[in-house]
Amino acid sequence: MVTSFPPRSPRPPGRARLVLASGAAALALAAGSVVPGNPFGPAPREAQAADGGSTLTVAVAQSVDSLSPFLAQRLLSTSIHRLMYDYLTNYDAKDSRTIPGLATEWETSADKLTWTYTIRGDSRWSDGEKATAEDAAWTFNKMMTDEGAATSNGSFVGNFKKVTAAGPDKLVIELKQPQATMTALDVPIVPKHVWEKVGDFSKFNNDTKFPVVGNGPFILTDYKVDSYVKLKANKDFWRGAPQFDELVFRYYKDQDAAVAALRKGEVSFVAGSPSLTPAQAASLKTADHVKVNDAPGRRFYALAANPGARTRDGEKFGDGHPALLDQKVRRALFMAVDRTTIIDKVFRGRAVEGEGYIPPRYDSYFWKPAAGQKLGHDPAKAGALLDRAGYRKNSAGKRVGKDGRPLDLRILCHATDPNDKAVGKYLQEWWGDLGVGLEVDCRDNVSDPWYAGEYDLAFDGWSVNPDPDFVMSIHTCAALPARAKESAATDNFICDEQYDDLYAKQLAEYDPAKRADLVKQMESRLYDTGYMNVMAYPNAVEAYRTDQIESITTMPSDAGNIFGQDGYWSWWSAVPAAGASDGSSDGGGSTGVLVGAGIAVVVLAGGGLLFAMRRRSTAEDRE
Amino acid sequence: MSTDSTPALLKGAAGADAVGADGPAPAGPSARGPRTRSTTAYLRHVAGKLAGAAVSLFAVLVTSFFLFRLIPGDPVKQMTGGRQVSTEQIVAMRREFGLDLPLWQQFTEYCGKALTGDFGTSYQFRAPVMDKISEALPATLLLTGTAFVIYTVIGIWLGARSAWRNGRAGDRFHTAFALTLYSVPSFWLGLLLIVTLSVGVGPIPGLFPTGGMESGNSSGFGHVLDVAHHLVLPVVTLVAVEYARTLLVMRSSLLDEMGSDYLTTARAKGLRDDLVRRRHAVPNAMLPTVTLLFVNLGNTVAGAILVETVFSWPGLGGLFYQALSVPDLPLVQALFFVFAAAVILMNTLADVIYPLLDPRVGR
Asked: Which PROSITE patterns match (chain B) (predicted)?
């Protein structure tokens, strides 16, 4: 009934003009973007700063938690602090060995309890003051005496008894116990004369007054939450000025958008978090002026078996499967894993087959099992091991224990990690062939069941530092929780006397070669006990524009990662590409002008139409 | 609070009567008795709605505390995971965040502070949560507010047109087109726009920035233009996905009005069809759309998590996501409260305004 109204006037009503006008405005914005010199224009080719200097733009996704080195905990923030402040020591880009930083040399007392560092004389704060041992002593003392200042790096000073400056170039640290990690104190040293004015360290975020006084290769000049972090080159940096004049960390919350920005040339570098996906890497490999850096990373990717969760006092909790307490069962499970398939199919070749606990890039600590020790892929032997452990196959092909119950396990997986899910599917297949059932339990947040000890197996992984102390310490008895289900430093509730002995020895061993040997013995022990089994060392897959960055140092320098290095090597060493400043790499030039002209025509036509409509409407109103 | 707002409400009530007197409804008697009665009824209506809103806000306050404690995940472990921390540090953090206190004590402290507007300090950013929220709020309001204005205008206009030409090709096209866009995932559409209009494909050059709200190297008017340039694609995405709702509501409510006698009367008076629609049909069909408009307005504060993420827009949506992933309890509680409060306030506002638009409501 309502559909048969009399004919309508063809005249668009007044609101139509509004819509057309807003459309025209949008088109005008678009048109503006291709007109040279227009403020709407695309962001300047990123290798060139507004003032003509060279700019290196890095796409990042992680928000800054704090710009205070006393509070920052995230990778991006701590990486920025590496650029802003010098540390006592640094790690060689070539092989991650300790090299001088703010300290030029160091020596220990005969009782191993006193370390004396010589502070370099040629490091100046960006406000002109000289960096001295006094600054370093003040920084450490602040962390030792103020809980608010210990938030991010408190673990480094836990064993410190006293820190003093014996003159402007002598820093003396007295320890409670010997500590071999004293050349790996990754603590930013801050200028005392600036920071002693800070009131509450637990609330001061160092993000209100720019530029921020520092002595690293770059100086923080500007920061806008989730938009950008800007740094300029410190021309007076003692190791030499960086090649780029400006370094900008720009936010791209979506990794595909970041990859698009790299294609366009809006950014010079994309790291991905933690890596570019295989699809992104493949698409970038064919892009012009883009180099994909597919190189060994810092992480290991492992299977962890629950050894029976317990507190430091030995109180047991959780519900780990008792069958896993039998070493033969664990070994059988690991021997049924085909690592080659995991590398080829899951990581698409972008990983290295796992062996020892520490990745091969740290060659002084890298260990791999001897021929007789290795749990290689051998499903037949795995079956025999399970037979010996008392888990025989029944008529249905399922392994059953002596109590007649089938051997069904659970594995805790990170719902956000596609690798976990894919490997989980393979494990179901391989262990299923063995007669062992597996439920892959993927969760957004695995920490709750994990710390409650409510898992049988879990996918596990850590980034390893040049000094292995931390990743080794998380398997000691001391790391176990004080109370059941409470969060603690432990990774997998491992507590092994022999391992702990070795851990204590390596921490007190100041001879690098001897210490490395002890660390390798620990890795061997960890491998044999079989509660941790490393399946792969995933690569870092990242990409940069070769028309903006001519060269950049990876770590290790032969083949390694660019983002998240233990040091400032990548951004400090990056050389701007020669043709970077003319940089129209996306062919937006003449085509852009053509399309711009086209859009201008559309806008004019739209304007004409509006004008015509206005005329007609007034004519109608006159009727 | 109530003493402050009373004069405004009284004024509004008087306005309601004025509208009633001029509108198509029969003019109300000017005698003192009925007018006072209707004013009292309106005031009672407003007071009821305000009381309801206050109860809802309190319920939200309580819910926000308990809801996020049900999410699995220990904030301290989540924040320290993968990092070099000692057990002592973990204990210190739990103490600092007050997580070592019994739940009831955490709750009473939270409520007490929240009533004074203090929602605590963010675990991960070490800053007052209200500072973090006020930092991100302008970006969100700019994005969703701009989109809101555009999709409301487009939705109402196209909806009215479609209903008026119900069943014709134009109606079928607009409805189908809007529904298609409505069903498109916003992040996918956003990425598509980035690939085509930002990076450029074939002959199309890269016209717009890939993401963010600003280039960071402009100031003054140039900065305004720079932000506007960054604003185009996210707003287009939001408008494309959102305008269908307004269109459909407007269309169906206008369709309901189209058989009404007063339209026949208007035509009989010799009014042009356009004027019949604009001056008689559309105003009467606006009521359901106004409801939706206020709901949408309330939602603008909550931002658009997916669109904000794809376009790296530094707004509340992204902040909420980050807060949830820890979970950063003080931040997530405050955001939940702010989002819910915005919707409640807008709904209350709609309830308060209704009687002014339609005197039948609230009697």
From this structure: ABC_TM1
Backbone torsions φ then ψ of B98, nearest 5 degrees: 75, 15
Find the distance separating the first CA and the last CA of chain B, reported in whole Å. Answer: 25
Distance in Å, alpha carbon of B303 to nearest chain A alpha carbon? 15
**CA A122 to CA A544: how far, in whole Å?**
33
Q: Are B115 and A184 in contact (CB under 8 A)?
A: no
Distance, in Å, from the CA atom of A73 to the CA atom of B356, rounded to the nearest integer, reads: 55
**pLDDT at position A416:** 79
Q: Tell me the β-bridge partners of A98.
A: A91
The values of phi and psi at residue A282, to 5°, are: -65, -40
State the Cα–Cα distance between residues A555 and A558, nearest whole angstrom.
Answer: 7
Q: Which pLDDT score is estimated for B155?
A: 94
Chain A CB contacts of B199 under 8 Å are 260-261, 263-264, 586
Query: What SS3 string covers B75-117?
Result: HHHHHHCCCCCCHHHHHHHHHHHCCCCCHHHHHHHHHHHHHCC
CA distance A578 to B274: 64
- Chain segment A566-611, per-residue pLDDT in tens: 999 999 999 999 866 433 333 333 344 444 444 554 555 556 556 5
Chain A residues near residue B311 by CB distance under 8 angstroms:
254, 257
Burial class (CB in 10 A: 0-12, 13-18, 19+), A124: middle
Q: Is the dihedral of CA A120, A122, A125, A131 positive or negative?
A: positive
Q: Which residue has the tokens 């039998």?
A: A326
Q: Residues A174-211: pLDDT tens digits?
A: 999 999 999 999 999 999 999 999 999 988 999 989 99
Helix axes B186-193 and A255-264, enclosed angle (nearest 10):
10
Chain B residues within 8 A of A63 when measuring between CB atoms: 125, 322
**Residues A55, A248: contact at Cβ < 8 Å?**
yes
Q: CA-CA-CA-CA torsion for A487, A441, A418, A485, nearest 10 degrees?
A: 0
Chain-chain contact of B72 with A445 (C-beta, under 8 angstroms): yes
- What ipTM did this prediction achieve? 0.79
- Interface contact A18-B153, CB threshold 8 A: yes
Q: Closest by alpha carbon to A262, among A469, A494, A554, A542?
A: A542
- Mean pLDDT per block of 10 residues along chain A (623 residues) reads 35 43 43 38 47 88 91 90 96 93 96 96 96 97 91 89 96 96 95 95 91 97 93 96 96 91 94 84 92 92 95 93 94 95 93 93 93 93 95 92 91 89 96 96 85 93 91 92 83 94 95 96 95 94 96 93 93 88 38 45 56 50 44
